[in-house]
Write a structure and sequence with these properties.
Elements (H helix, E strand, L loop, with lengths): L12 E3 L4 H11 L3 E5 L5 E6 H10 L20 E3 L4 H11 L3 E5 L3 E6 H11 L6 H4 L6 E3 L4 H11 L3 E5 L5 E6 H11 L4 E4 L7 E4 L15 H4 L1 E2 L3 E3 L4 H11 L3 E6 L2 E7 H9 L4
Parallel strand pairs: 1-2, 4-5, 7-8, 13-14
Antiparallel strand pairs: 2-3, 5-6, 8-9, 9-12, 10-11, 14-15
């Protein structure tokens, strides 16, 4: 039986004392959704994820810039498994604990396994085992083009998703928003001490920024249409799940839309693939 040591990757780390801005920049540059955190001695002590940062940006109402806030204020404890743990057991742990990665330990932390690693494992070993429709999430979270940034992030946190489908007022799908889109906005506007509010067509208002994605930050002045990614990657309901996995890996995304009769009817994500792995019969 394949164990986690065979698919684990070398950890990508960031120091606890580094800024949130540096963590966001590194995630975007490396196209990673999480980083392991280290102390001054270089020991791995935790993990910081896109969702952790998203929640922080939504709730923080200080006047500090992103360069002034350390990673340690947002990082969480790392759940670890032994390097001999079977891959199916790791998939079950991720599913049951609703997490996207685990550390891999021997005498200390030596690696990390993420949902992406499990998706690659699925591609290599399970062609023909499942159709997309067998594992997809039939519903999907969506918002509208005129919804504010604050409401967008609130919805993502509430629904525990890393992406939202964006529609126009006729319910036509127009694009998608992910945490990386939120980061790009926050990295640009989070450097400013003031916020320009143009929501009133008659008059523009400038006010001191308090927080980031909060209503007192710039969360109420930026809208989905301003920063969404137009169009979304899709697969068909009857496609082999490996096809969806390949699209996710090739496009460095966490999920794809699912079409039934050419209509968007759901989402299949890396989380769905990990769940399918955990349920495979020995």
């Amino acid at each position: 039986m394949t164990n986690v040591k065979q698919i684990m990757k070398k950890p990508i780390t960031i120091d606890n004392s580094d800024s949130i801005l540096k963590a966001m920049t590194r995630m975007i540059d490396l196209k990673k959704s999480r980083l392991l955190t280290t102390n001054k001695s270089g020991d791995i002590v935790g993990i910081i994820t896109e969702k952790d940062i998203g929640f922080f940006l939504l709730s923080n109402d200080s006047e500090k810039n992103l360069t002034e806030i350390p990673v340690s204020s947002t990082a969480k404890s790392l759940i670890e498994v032994n390097e001999s743990t079977p891959i199916k057991d790791v998939a079950h742990i991720m599913t049951s604990k609703n997490i996207g990665s685990v550390g891999v330990s021997s005498s200390d932390t030596v690696g990390i396994v993420t949902k992406t690693d499990l998706v690659r494992h699925y591609i290599q070993n399970y062609v023909g085992h499942n159709r997309v429709g067998d594992v997809m999430t039939v519903t999907y979270s969506s918002m509208y083009m005129d919804d504010s940034l604050y409401n967008i992030v609130s919805k993502m946190i509430e629904d525990k998703v890393s992406r939202l489908i964006i529609k126009d007022n006729q319910d036509t799908v127009k694009g998608i928003i992910t945490f990386r889109d939120l980061f790009r906005v926050s990295m640009t506007l989070g450097k400013d001490n003031d916020v320009l509010d143009n929501t009133d067509p008659v008059i523009s208002v400038v006010f001191p920024r308090k927080g980031f994605l909060t209503q007192s930050g710039f969360g109420g002045t930026i809208f989905a249409k301003d920063f969404m990614t137009p169009n979304i990657t899709t697969v068909d309901y009857n496609d082999d799940l490996v096809t969806a996995c390949t699209e996710m890996i090739d496009n460095t995304i966490n999920g794809v839309g699912v079409l039934i009769n050419n209509r968007l009817s759901g989402i299949v994500s890396k989380t769905d693939v990990v769940r399918a792995l955990s349920e495979l019969k020995d």
